[in-house]
Amino acid sequence: MNARNTLIGLMATTLVLAFPMVGSAEEQHGQEATQHLDQAVESAKQGDTAAAGKHTEEAKQHAIQQNKAKPYRKSPKKISGENPKQEHDEQAFGAMGKAEGHAAKGHAQETGEAAGQAKQHLQDKEQSK
User: Fold this and answer.
1) DSSP for 45-90?
2) What is the pLDDT along the chain (129 residues), one digit of tens a residue?
3) pTM for this model (two decimals)
4) How far apart are CA 39 and CA 45, in angstroms?
5) Where is this chain compositionally biased, Basic and acidic residues type (predicted)?
6) d(CA 62, CA 75)
7) Long-range contact pairs involving 114-119 (C-beta distance under 8 Å, separation at least 24)
8) CA–CA separation, 86 vs 122, rounded Å?
9) What's the CA gap between 118 and 34, in Å, rounded?
10) What is the C-alpha separation between 83 and 129, in angstroms, rounded?
11) What distance in Å separates the CA atoms of residue 70 and residue 21, rounded to the nearest whole number?
12) Secondary structure (3-state) at 95
């Protein structure tokens, strides 16, 4: 009986310690994604579209990792307003794709605008239910 209680205690401790790490990994990736998008906007303002494109790609990778750390339920049907996290996520990835496309073409202003929109959607995603 003691071995069983010890094992249960160890498992409970492991779960308690593991859940904060998952939340912090999700938060860390979200923060890094928005930081990279800030850097993309700044690079675009300076006319450095290559750097803006790289920062946008980094932001996209962090957003993907954030979704892996804490996935949300995707709705099988597309009903506006039903799943705001999904909607903001899709819009953020769409805006990041636009930013990368404009960066590749050397369009600094459009790159910065799209990166700023992506950042706003990621922030809105975090605040939605």
Assistant:
1) HTT-HHHHHHHHHHHHHHHHHHHHHS--PPPSS--TTT-HHHHHHH
2) 567 667 566 665 655 455 544 457 778 888 999 999 999 999 999 999 999 999 999 999 999 998 887 776 666 666 666 788 889 999 999 999 999 999 999 999 999 999 999 999 999 998 886
3) 0.76
4) 10
5) 99-110
6) 22
7) 115/37, 115/40, 115/41, 115/44, 115/52, 115/55, 115/56, 115/59, 116/37, 116/41, 117/91, 118/37, 118/56, 118/59, 118/92, 118/93, 119/34, 119/37, 119/38, 119/41, 119/59
8) 10
9) 9
10) 8
11) 11
12) helix
Amino acid type, 73:
R
- Per the listing, tokens 């160890």 go with 10
User: How long a stretch of residues is the chain?
Assistant: 129
Which pair of structure tokens corresponds to residue 15? 């779960």
Residue with tokens 């932001």: 59
- All structural domains of the chain, each given as residue ranges with its CATH number in brackets, are 26-68+83-127 (1.20.120.660)
Which single residue is written with the structure tokens 């300076």? Answer: 46
